[in-house]
Write a structure and sequence with these properties.
Layout lengths: L3 E4 L1 E4 L1 E2 L10 H6 L3 E7 L4 E9 L5 E5 L15 E7 L7 E4 L3 E5 L5 E8 L16 E2 L3 E5 H4 L2 E2 L8 E6 L3 E10 L2 E2 L2 E6 L1 H5 L2 E5 L1 E8 L2 E8 L6 H19 L6 E8 L9 E6 L2 E6 L10 H15 L18 H19 L4 H17 L7 H7 L4 H25 L6 H13 L6 H11 L2 H13 L16 E7 L8 E7 L5 H6 L2
Parallel strand pairs: 20-21, 21-23
Antiparallel strand pairs: 1-19, 2-15, 3-4, 4-5, 5-10, 6-9, 6-13, 7-10, 8-9, 11-12, 12-18, 14-17, 15-16, 15-18, 19-20, 22-23, 24-25
């Protein structure tokens, strides 16, 4: 029997199920903190939602959406016809709070119902970036909770609450529904409000595939037509999950979900991206990404999957809690880029040639970047506004990671590497340590030297250029950096290029990484 199977469901709809003991699953509803019915209406190309909660004891409850998320600055505009009712269906008095909030007056501790819908046709976004707004057509829907769910503010904070989800609203073979917490028709989740909303929800004409990974489940929800077989993506994702969990000696959560969502309006090969969410990843891709072994498109898809999965540890567990968002992207994004390349080549998913090509793209893009000397404050201010600025922490941070890897190896006579540093950050995070700038610099000093930590500070905060010298053995004795002419910038311009020493065998090079 194969380790995976195709799952089909006859019906779905979506509910965050609640305190109101109305339909089946009444016992689960009675324990839940919130209940939201989400009904897929394919003829109207919309998803209608109802959120049921018990209001505050003082008779005033607040609801909200984030002020911005994922580059979307008008999140409230994605939720159409928001209204609030009592248990009898009568409208309640509502006061708007700026552009992102609603205050609702009601009887003390009374049941409340909020209603809205998603899916009004919207003009396509400009360019090739991912569109994280809710999407609904007559075949399927998908939305990310931060951009589609109304938040009941009394549930905010670090406390975990019980949510029950019920998928319904679509009949027929070949249809299913899933979210970051499992497949429909009924799903329960014990989460904080933030982690519950930091999730993906999909339904309609989607295909579900499951894999068992050492007793933990990987679930893929694939929608639309792609240039690969579902099994190819499932196989690739399963191997990446195995490799990264092995790196951290972490068996993983009982369930990890990956959604693959088409971008039919984008030109073939133009758009590939996604976002890491609560124990899940939402992959967005246009046509034109076959997963042929050795192909550049397989490299690009595997790079994205590996990068976003690594954020489960570096970004979601090891994370900045006090600094402004963006100030530590050099670590959360740049170090994740470094380990994406390292783990993909070590696993054999990439060849050494592909690993070299990826590093050389990074080095060239950094050398050509018009903002390569920008301080960290520029990243905080313009990350979502300027593509060059948004690329900078990925490029700069990956190079800093390589420099730190070399320093750790030198300081320990080869006994330790950046692998050990990263694993220690995960252990420290589980013990409550934050990954803020000053903490990270202190830990870098502990693992290398105070002088090197100050050099890193100058690079990541002040915009100093990292030292990349001709002949540098940044990646060990089998590799060298050379400065080569850069035709893109004209006569006299050069870019660093990483090369493998002549005569080095693939297996030998891979073993040194």
């Amino acid at each position: 029997m194969t380790a995976h199977r195709l799952v089909r469901a006859a019906a779905f709809g979506l509910a965050l199920t609640s305190l109101l003991p109305s339909r089946a699953h009444g016992a689960e509803q009675a324990r839940a903190a919130a209940h939201c019915i989400v009904e897929f209406q394919p003829e109207q190309r919309r998803v209608a939602l109802e959120l049921h909660v018990i209001g505050e004891s003082d008779g005033m409850s607040s609801f909200s959406v984030p002020p911005d998320w994922g580059g979307i600055t008008d999140l409230a505009a994605q939720l159409h016809d928001v209204s609030f009712l009592d248990a009898a269906g009568q409208p309640l008095a509502v006061t708007r709070v700026g552009t992102v909030g609603w205050n609702v007056a009601h009887a003390p501790a009374a049941p409340l119902v909020a209603r809205w819908w998603l899916g009004e046709p919207q003009p396509p976004t400009v360019g090739t970036g991912n569109d994280y707004r809710p999407y609904v057509d007559d075949q399927r829907f998908h939305f990310l909770g931060n951009a589609g769910l109304l938040r009941f503010d009394p549930l905010s904070g670090e406390a975990r609450h019980s949510f029950t989800l019920e998928f319904r609203g679509c009949d027929g073979a070949g249809r299913a529904a899933a979210c970051s917490f499992g497949a429909g028709p009924h799903v329960t989740a014990e989460e904080t409000l933030d982690t519950f909303c930091h999730a993906v929800f999909v339904g309609g004409a989607i295909r579900l595939h499951r894999r068992d990974l050492a007793g933990r489940e990987l679930l893929l929800a694939i929608a639309g037509t792609h240039d690969f077989a579902d099994e190819q993506l499932t196989d690739l994702a399963a191997e990446i999950v195995r490799r990264e969990r092995a790196f951290f000696d972490d068996p993983g959560d009982p369930l990890y979900v990956i959604t693959a969502l088409p971008e039919p309006t984008k030109p073939p090969g133009s758009s590939l991206g996604g976002t890491g969410l609560t124990r899940s990843f939402a992959l967005f891709l246009a046509r034109g990404f076959p997963l042929t072994p050795g192909s550049d498109t397989r490299l690009r898809v595997s790079s994205l999957l590996a990068h976003e999965l690594f954020h489960h540890w570096n970004g979601l567990l090891v994370r900045n809690r006090d600094d402004p968002e963006g100030l530590t992207y050099w670590f959360s994004e740049g170090f994740t880029e470094f380990f994406t390349r390292r783990l993909m080549v070590r696993s054999g998913i990439w060849s050494v040639r592909q690993w070299l090509a990826e590093w050389n793209r990074c080095l060239a893009r950094f050398a050509r970047s018009p903002v390569k000397a920008a301080p960290a404050e520029r990243i905080v201010a313009d990350f979502w506004k300027d593509r060059d600025v948004s690329d900078l922490p990925y490029l700069r941070g990956a190079i800093v990671a390589a420099l730190l890897d070399r320093e750790i190896r030198a300081a320990s006579d080869g006994e330790r590497s950046l692998d050990d540093f990263m694993r220690e950050r995960v252990t420290a995070a589980r013990d409550g340590e934050h990954a803020d700038t000053e903490v990270l610099l202190e830990r870098i000093a502990d693992w290398s030297s105070a002088e090197f930590a100050e050099q890193v500070r100058a690079i990541v905060l002040d915009g100093a250029l990292p030292p990349l010298e001709e002949g540098d053995d940044l990646f060990g004795p089998l590799f060298r950096l050379r400065n080569v002419p850069d035709p893109e910038r004209g006569v006299g311009a050069t870019v660093p290029r990483l090369e493998l020493l002549p005569g080095t065998r693939e297996e030998e090079a891979r073993a040194g990484l």
